[in-house]
Amino acid sequence: MNKKNDYIQKVIDIALKRNHGEPEFHQAAAEVLESLRPVIEKHPEFEKNAILERIIEPERQIAFRVPWQDDSGRIHINRGFRIQFNSALGPYKGGIRFHPSVYSGIIKFLGFEQIFKNSLTGLMMGGAKGGSDFDPKGKSDSEVMRFCQSFMNELYRYIGADTDVPAGDIGVGGREVGYMFGQWKKLTKLFNGILTGKGLDFGGSLARTEATGYGCVYFCEEMLKDRKESFAGKTVVISGSGNVAIYAHEKATQLGAKVVAMSDSNGVIYDKHGVNLETVKCIKEVERKRIKVCSEHHSTTKYIEGCSNIWNIECDIALPCATQNELDEKGAKELVKNGCIAVAEGANMPSTPEAVKIFLKSGICYGPGKAANAGGVATSGLEMAQNSQRLSWTFEEVDKKLHQIMVDIYKSVKQAAEEYKTPGNLVNGANIAGFMKVARAMMAQGLV
Ligand code: NDP
Ligand code: 2IT
Questions:
Q1: pLDDT tens digits for range 113-167
Q2: Whose CA is nearest to atom 47 of ligand 1?
Q3: How far apart are CA 131 and CA 81, in angstroms?
Q4: Pocket of ligand 1 contains residue 215 by CB under 6 Å
Q5: What is the CATH number of the domain that holds 286?
Q6: pTM, rounded to two decimals
Q7: pLDDT at residue 401 above 60?
Q8: What average pLDDT does the structure give for the chain?
Q9: What is the pLDDT of residues 161-206, one digit of tens each?
Q10: Residues 244, 373: contact at Cβ < 8 Å?
Q11: Which of the ligands is closest to the CA of residue 380?
Q12: 394: buried, middle or exposed (CB in 10 Å: 19+, 13-18, 0-12)?
């Protein structure tokens, strides 16, 4: 190993040592840093200016107590986070996750990924992420409202329309964003674009709800086009049944595919005639029930216990849209063995490093999350633009812009992979293309 390569290892070691007990962050950092070896060889100025040491260290990390009362008057204490990772390209931007598994390592990996994802969108957004170990499942609307208000009582000190703009993620959708927006307005007297994913009546953008799922399918469509393939007539499996999964289903179906399976953290529904999207929407968006209920509505829909079983189902295209590390080596091997030709990640880091290796080695189309799911944050960027103008664009206008952004991301990721001599490796392409812009901006802005 030459001296330049030692630099990469040195920075990986710093990330490991300084972020003790945070394996998700180690995983995300190691993947990006490994991709950057050829970049560092070509650009010694990045090492001289300690760009990698700086980029793996968040600019600011906030952790806070979130006290709230349930409907019976019992008091609960959760922990809230906001990690403002990098502001070289614009105000911090990134979602908020409410899930019992949330701790600093989850928010840190998501914030780190967000830096490069936001850079790929071509819009002016830095990287951040926030969240809490609060579990919204089974909570009443008023409990969720009180939690969101308490969360904002502390968060409001650190965010602003031109400093840091949160949005949704797992467990945070339109309802939660609405409650947080209300509390922000009460505390600050400001009615501005402080959050994205807002309701359409108070500054939300048309097509933001659909954007991540649609964008993931648009990205996948570009990968397929390069192989003279398309969604038409293809069989698709989509893990998860939340915001991203639902709208990935909608777009894939519009393009002529059949979605035969979806899931939640308990199990999988399978229907060889196609999973009924309207039923899933009703169960998940309105009733907030488990995906299993779908099989009670349709006799052809089977329920299989255990969410990882979804990767055993034969398909042409797989869209992991649930959570990190949901697709392991075994799942990846199964997909490839069954003839899957494309995997595009709607979720953040859903494939384990071993699964990624299988995909890259097999030569199937593989679109990593930070490129394939960038449509959500890109449309958040479009919501910010509309809020600044005090205007709303039509669904068609926003969708057209989203589509173009995904086409452009695919082009730049593909081109970076070729330029750095790993054609077709979109992991390297996404990491390198995302990094270059941030690194150049950091160099230009001096040691801050
Ligand atoms: P939702 O909360 O709407 O849905 C999450 C889905 O994933 C649910 O079906 C949930 O099942 C499942 N899930 C969550 N945790 C686990 C777990 N530990 N094991 C198995 N399944 C799980 O979230 P989103 O659809 O918004 O987010 C899904 C993914 O997409 C996340 O990785 C998120 O970071 C990413 N993403 C989201 C964007 C957005 O705009 N919303 C943008 C870009 C990426 P259950 O109900 O059982 O928990
Ligand atoms: O992971 C993500 O990109 C998101 N959850 C969306 C972030 C945003 O600011 O819209």
A1: 999 999 999 999 999 999 999 999 999 999 999 999 999 999 999 999 999 999 9
A2: 265
A3: 5
A4: no
A5: 3.40.50.720
A6: 0.98
A7: yes
A8: 97
A9: 999 999 999 999 999 999 999 999 999 999 999 999 999 999 999 9
A10: yes
A11: 2
A12: exposed
Residue 5 pLDDT grade (very low, low, confident, very high; cuts 50, 70, 90): low
The residue whose CB lies within 8 Å of the most ligand 1 atoms, and thus the one to mutate among 175, 265, 383, is 265
∠ CA(301), CA(305), CA(307), 5° rounding?
A: 95
Residues 359 and 237 placed together within one structural domain of the fold = yes
Task: Decide whether any atom of ligand 1 lies within 6 Å of the 373 Cβ.
Answer: yes
Instruction: Measure the CA–CA gap between 343 and 332, rounded to whole angstroms.
Output: 10
Q: 3-class SS at 79?
A: strand
What was the pLDDT predicted at 4?
A: 46
Contacts of residue 48, defined as CB under 8 A and 6 or more positions apart, other chains included, come to none
Active site residues: 129
153 and 181 housed in the same domain: yes
Give the domain extent around 33.
3-55
Is 263 in the same domain as 363?
Answer: yes
- Look at residues 198, 156, 194 and name the one whose alpha carbon lies nearest to residue 177: 198
Cβ contacts of residue 220 below 8 Å, gap of 6+? 231, 317, 319, 342, 344, 365, 367, 372
Closest ligand to C-alpha of residue 195 is 2
CA-to-CA distance for 152 and 333, rounded, in angstroms?
Answer: 44
What is the DSSP secondary-structure string of 331-386?
Answer: HHHHHHHTT--EEE-SSSS-B-HHHHHHHHHHT-EEE-HHHHTHHHHHHHHHHHHH
Residue 72 contacts by C-beta under 8 Å, 6 or more apart in sequence?
none
Token pair in block for residue 368? 């990593």
Same structural domain, 224 and 321: yes
